[in-house]
Design goal:
Blueprint lengths: L1 H14 L8 H16 L7 E9 L17 E9 H6 L2 H16 L4 H5 L14 E4 L30 E3 L4 E3 L2 H7 L3 H7 L4
Parallel strand pairs: 1-3, 3-4
Antiparallel strand pairs: 1-2, 4-5
Length: 195
């Protein structure tokens, strides 16, 4: 919690936002997008995207009926050239994510919902980072009869290079990318204040 608070404060200080505030999730995702992109050693002119799953049930106007059972979500995609993402700071990345959320979730009504397309997993590029799961979901308080959870992990079908789950951060990367990420000074500085 302390590390996330520091990351959020740093992102908000550097973001130069005109309205609103960078959320904890946007700050943490911005940090991970930057550090994973750095660890991949991509060329500056390549395009990278950060795709964040956004729940739509509370954003639609009018909202879905309470009887609705299922998932209603959309991946919000923020794109940047690698050189731009790494040439700027955390505030720039978090602001780009924040602006995507504002732009893509404004005026979400039923007409808007009728025009969306099904998500195609093949649309995920190897330069991308995908974030799924929600910090608002009560992961550890639920007990389905066999006790409370000790850890939240995704199954093997949801493990692919560049996927991040939840605020506990299950980060799936290729071994050489993970090894480089473990040496990233920006990430270590954010997570370990005495580093």
């Amino acid at each position: 919690a302390q590390a996330i608070s520091r990351i959020k404060a740093k992102a908000n200080k550097r973001s130069k936002l005109q309205r609103g505030e960078i959320s904890s999730l946007q700050a943490l995702v911005g940090l991970m997008w930057r550090t994973i992109t750095w660890a991949r050693k991509l060329q500056g002119d390549q395009i990278t995207a950060c795709k964040v799953a956004a729940g739509l049930q509370k954003r639609l106007d009018p909202t879905l009926p309470w009887e609705y059972f299922g998932s209603c979500m959309l991946f919000l995609s923020t794109e940047a050239k690698v050189g731009d993402l790494l040439g700027q700071d955390l505030g720039w990345a978090a602001r780009a994510l924040h602006e995507t959320v504002l732009r893509e979730t404004a005026n979400m009504g039923w007409q808007w919902l009728m025009n969306i397309q099904l998500y195609d997993v093949n649309g995920f590029e190897s330069n991308d980072v995908m974030v799924a799961s929600s910090p608002w979901l009560e992961m550890y308080g639920s007990d389905f009869g066999w006790g409370k959870g000790l850890a939240v992990l995704s199954g093997s079908a949801n493990k692919f290079d560049g996927r991040i789950s939840g605020m506990d951060l299950e980060v799936c990367l290729l071994p050489h990318v993970m090894a480089a990420l473990e040496l990233d000074e920006e990430l270590l500085d954010a997570l370990l204040p005495s580093y």
